[in-house]
Amino acid sequence: MLRHTRPKGTQDFIPPVSQQKLLVENTFRDLAVIYGFQEIVTPTFEHTELFIKSSGTGSDIVIKEMYSFQDRSQRSLTLKPEGTPGVIRAVLENRLVLPARLYYITPCFRYSRPQKGRYREFYQLGIEALGEASARTDAELIHFGVRFFSRLNIAGLTVMVNSIGCRTCRQDYREKLLTFLRLNREALCPDCQQRIEVNPLRVLDCKNDHCQTMLQKAPVPREYLCSDCQTHFTIVINELTARQLPYRIDDHLVRGLDYYNRTTFEFVSDKLGAQNSLGGGGRYDYLIEELGGPPTPASGLAIGLERTMLAMPQLEVPTGRRQLVFVIWTSENELRTAVDLTDRLREAGIPAQLSFDSPKLKRQLHLADLADAAFAVIVGEEELKRGVYGLKNLTTGEQIELPAPELISRLKPLLAV
RNA sequence: GUGAGUGUAGCUCAAUUAGGUCAGAGCACCUGACUGUGGCUCAGGAUGUUGGGGGUUCGAGUCCCCUCACUCACCCCA
After folding, report:
1. What's the rounded Cα separation, in Å, for the pair A225 and A163?
2. Of the residues A255, A286, A311, which one is the last residue of a structural domain?
3. Per its UniProt record, what Pfam families does this chain match (predicted)?
4. CB within 7 A of strand B (chain A, 250-269)
5. Is residue A242 helix, strand or coil?
6. Are A115 and A9 spatial neighbours (Cβ–Cβ below 8 Å)?
7. How does pLDDT run across A231-280, given as a tens digit for each residue?
8. Which positions on strand B lie below 7 Å from a protein C-beta?
């Protein structure tokens, strides 16, 4: 029985999975930079009110999923359940000049029962285009997502898009929907009956088959868009087509957070189980104003890192050895030289390691093998007398001798550093 | 928060139809054969309060109850 175990819903990223995670993050970073985004880092926790204000009191995140706590001065703080609110808060607080394109990689926390692709601590990769009003921006973010997933060789991806209108037309639609739902209340599942009053739009994407067949006749947001919203959506669609991005319009796609308007989109994978959304986003033209800033249009996208990793072809078990040189010494007399050599290798940018723990050559070679090093450099008494090092290729077993001064220059091309 | 399934060495799994040499194997790890050469082979070795607690029984990894953890699904969403 282990004495200490990780808290429920958290996970350890150990090698080689940690490498996989790094690959995903780096891919995201590179792409974000290419699209003109700069990184923003905000605190892991914020004042609780920030999230209540942004996500909406009706959202499940606020009602039952936040990791909230009182600090020692009785301030109510909350571990961030998503990335956007902190970013907006920081942008306003630091008076950043808009428009601005920002990206973030951050852990997020939600208290919910863990399952495949859902954790209590999870990582979100997000981009926010603040101060950009154009529908073309929305399409560009979708393009960003598609490109990101394709760079990671993720197949089976579907892009879902929809528009949920603006303040005005959404209100009209809401009334129509409410009338419809109240009329058909009995035919809906208990969950949906609840949702009618709390957040009626969410009834649309209920998973219950019964509800879905019934909802075929329900009014959908797109039918009630005002002309501006309609134009906006048309441009998004045209832009996607022009960029040759396949998409599906899903009239029932409603995002869970209250702050979205007009464009909403989601990346759905067919190899993920129940939690099949790899990421999603949309336009949120009211949030900044809502949080005390000037009226500012904005559009964003957030991707789930763990789900991305789940959808990747397979954990690329790195075949072959690590780009690492293991320095081996044969007796205490050579230890000093070995330590200095290791240090010089490192100065030259060559990953190098040695073991101080055993003077046994055999043991050291075995450790080099365990560490999966590509090469062993042998610093032996014989070699030192002649001014050479032994260089052993641990894959092939071949061993050659190199004049001491040549070692680094010969090693560099072998390790591609 | 609700439901179902699973819990045996670090890992993957065994342990006779209804409880009785049942606490094992393979991989991994350590030591040696190999006094300056890893991987291969051979010979040894260490490791488990069978998730935890209680009960039934002469006797429980095996049956019952509670609990914890994990997994999947609902819910929610990344």
Report:
1. 8
2. A311
3. HGTP_anticodon, tRNA-synt_His
4. 255-257, 266
5. helix
6. no
7. 999 999 999 999 999 999 999 898 767 788 999 999 999 888 888 999 99
8. 1-3, 29-32, 34-39, 49, 51-52, 69-78
